[in-house]
Amino acid sequence: MIKGILTKDVVLTDVSVKDWREAVSICGKLLLGTHKIVEQYIDSMIKTIEEFGPYMILLPGIALFHGRPDEGVREICLSLVTFREEVGFKEFGDESIKAAFAFGATDESSHMEILREMALLLQDGAFIDLLKNNGSKEQIMDMITSIDKGGM
Questions:
Q1: Which CATH superfamily is domain 2-145 in?
Q2: pTM for the full predicted model
Q3: Could you give the CA distance from residue 2 to residue 151 in angstroms, rounded to a whole number?
Q4: Residue 22 · residue 47 · CB < 8 Å
Q5: For 27, which of 58, 102, 137, 138 could close a Cys bridge (C-beta 3.0–4.6 Å)?
Q6: Helix crossing, 125-132 with 137-146: angle to 10°?
Q7: What does the pLDDT look like over 15-73, one tens digit per residue?
Q8: Cross-strand partners of 65
Q9: Spatial contact of 5 and 78, defined as CB atoms under 8 Å apart
Q10: Mean pLDDT across the chain
């Protein structure tokens, strides 16, 4: 399932941003470009971080940006961006990331399989190394593809 959603058109690598808001915006614009979200969902992701802080950091250096399911998501979607330099969350202490997924769900439950597959990906040390150490888009896509082949 994740292989069909996290496709090369929604993955960017080695991106430079000035702050976490721009990081969220870039992740969101990938989804906007596929017409799976509307613009207000990007604002929802930013507001969620402003309200709750960087709890979306799943692992050291990797975030899962998301907003509320009812705020502009047309269908389940996922994007991935890796950053050239660490992106800090200065308002919230010393948290920083090197990669981020943006995730959109249409309701509270239909996205559980994608989250399960993401959990498998994020348990793979080689995949994490690619995300944190400027792996190429091709290497990252190969790892994503391998999840459906039992490679993880």
A1: Mannitol-specific EII; Chain A (3.40.930.10)
A2: 0.92
A3: 14
A4: no
A5: 102
A6: 160
A7: 999 999 999 999 999 999 999 999 999 999 999 999 998 889 989 999 999 998 777 99
A8: 102
A9: yes
A10: 90
Tell me the CA distances in angstroms from 3 to 53, 105, 120, one per residue in order: 30, 16, 13
One DSSP character per residue, 99-119 reads EEEEEE-SSSSTTHHHHHHHH
The tokens for 12 are 């960017």
- Token representation of residue 38: 């509307």
The end-to-end CA distance of the chain, in Å, is 14
Q: List all residues 6 or more positions away from 2 whose beta carbon is below 8 Å from its beta carbon.
A: 78, 114, 117, 118, 121, 144, 147, 148
Strand pairing of 57-59 and 77-88?
unpaired
